[in-house]
Amino acid sequence: MNQTNVRGRRWGAALLALLCAIAVVLSMAVPSNAQAMEIAKCTARPNADSGSDVLGGTETRITWEGQATDSESLQSISLTLPAGTGYSLDQARATILTGEDHMTRVSVPTTFSSDGETITATFSEPTDAGGYYRLEIYGVVFPTAGGDMPIQATCVLADGSQEQVGSSTIAVTGVSVTKQLTNWLEDQPWVQAWNSVKFLKLFFNPILLVSSFPVVLQGFFMALAIVVIAFPLAIPLGLLLSFMRMSKFGILRGLGSLYVNIVRGTPVFLQIYIAFFGLPLAGVQIPPFPLGIIVLAMNSAAYQCEIYRAGIQSISKGQFEAARSLGMNGAQTMAFVIIPQTVRRVLPTLTNEFILLYKDTSMLAAVGVMEVVMYAKTIVASTGSITPYIVAALFYLVITLPLAKVVGKLEKKLANNDTGSGPSSMSRKERRAAKKTAKHESLVDRRIDLPDANASAEAVEVSPERFSSM
Q1: ∠ CA(37), CA(43), CA(46), 5° rounding?
Q2: For the chain, what are the domain ranges?
Q3: What local confidence, expressed as pLDDT, does residue 289 receive?
Q4: From residue 265, how far is each of 49, 260, 271, 302 by CA, in Å?
Q5: pLDDT tens digits, residue range 360-405?
Q6: Long-range Cβ pairs for the range 25-30 (8 Å, 24+)
Q7: Nearest Cα residue to 303 out of 363, 242, 249
Q8: C-beta separation of 403 from 351 below 8 A
Q9: Model confidence at 34, in pLDDT bands (50, 70, 90)?
């Protein structure tokens, strides 16, 4: 048994040695991936205004480096860029880096060619084995959408065989349409000529007009949200104050008059400062956005109070008396008779108040509320140009000009309703038709209608009885 075990162990050791020898032979006969050319570096030059980002839609430079093995002599290297990538071969170059730190550059006569997204660098003659290669491609423009951009590399060896080197990825940041337009404007000769004039560059820089638009747009939505919330909140408060000012009770009239006179007699800018800096000192902490809405709503309520009071007092007393004669009490008369007529009369003035309130949102920039002026101010501080303020003014005009047109139409319509369908409210064609109709009616009124013959005979006939009695 001992001899049998010894023999088995010997046979097992011999078989294991044979397998190891076969594995060594096979490893020497078949080259491994570790002995093939490897990618050492694949980067793109940062093209953002700051930082190390690579932006899509903007020119950059690709630098690709690869290390060949000691047995590899190359005929060409090919790089395949992502679909939709633009490039230029005018300044493309290939070099071999030598030395321990690869700091010595050796220019290699190279011919660059392209086939779609594939760029091929063909050397004039096969290179020495074991070289460290660098390819530089200029004018590369990645897709504007951005993302991870794969760069696929292949090479052709001196014996004509093709080898897959591998793939590397470059992270590209997507750019907006605004950024693309800005980049396009920077390259335009007319923009450069325009900005050569100091005044035009300071106030109407086309590049800043475009680049600041989406930033200020955020403030526009913020300001619009503030006024859209604050104005409706001021309506019931303004109505309440107007009723207080018209009340028969002296205390209510005094309180209403006191509030209205104080708010209307002090600048809204000062009211904003008192609210934003005074309340925190008193221990009241309110976020800037809702606090701005509260201040503007309370300010607008004082002005709306006078608008409603003037509208209510413009209704004739006959309307009150007619409503009372129908059995309505004071509240019903005000709700169903007076208020509807008042709203119609004060609508143009309320629209003007909305415009003023929207413009007053600009004062919130002084306390850090991010509205139109605040966003524009941030850009001005970083660029030194007044152009963002011009963009902010355009956003105000977008709201104020159409509303001013609406106010004019409302006032004209109310004036026509008050004067009736008189000559001033008619067009020229309508006035001519009215004149013809009036002339025709006057002729008809002056026409003499004669009775017919039978009626005339009956009218002059006198009976014999009546004649004898005469």
Answers
A1: 170
A2: 34-175, 178-210, 212-419
A3: 94
A4: 49, 8, 11, 10
A5: 999 999 998 989 999 999 999 988 999 999 999 999 999 999 999 9
A6: none
A7: 242
A8: yes
A9: very low
Beta 110-115 vs 59-67: how paired, if at all? unpaired
φ, ψ for residue 468, nearest 5 deg: -70, -25
Per CATH, domain 34-175 is 2.60.40.740: yes
232-291 confidence digits (pLDDT tens): 999 999 999 999 999 999 999 999 999 999 999 999 999 999 999 999 999 999 999 999
Residue keyed to tokens 């006959």: 318
For residues 423 and 417, give the distance between their C-alpha atoms in angstroms, rounded to a whole number: 12
- Residues across the chain: 470
CATH number belonging to domain 212-419? 1.10.3720.10
Look at phi and psi of residue 469 and say left if phi exceeds 0, alpha if psi is from -120 to 50, else beta. alpha
Token reading at 59: 């020119």
* Residue 5 Cα to chain centre, angstroms: 87
CA proximity to 64, closest of 138, 145, 7: 138
Reported as a single tens digit per residue, the pLDDT across 301-346 is 999 999 999 999 988 888 888 888 888 888 888 888 898 889 888 9
The answer, as to whether pTM is greater than 0.85, is no
- Cα dist from 263 to 11, 227, 269, 357, whole Å: 109, 18, 11, 14
C-beta of residue 86 within 8 angstroms of C-beta of residue 92: no
Can 34-175 and 212-419 be said to share one CATH topology? no
Closest CA to 63 of 50, 83, 76, 46: 46
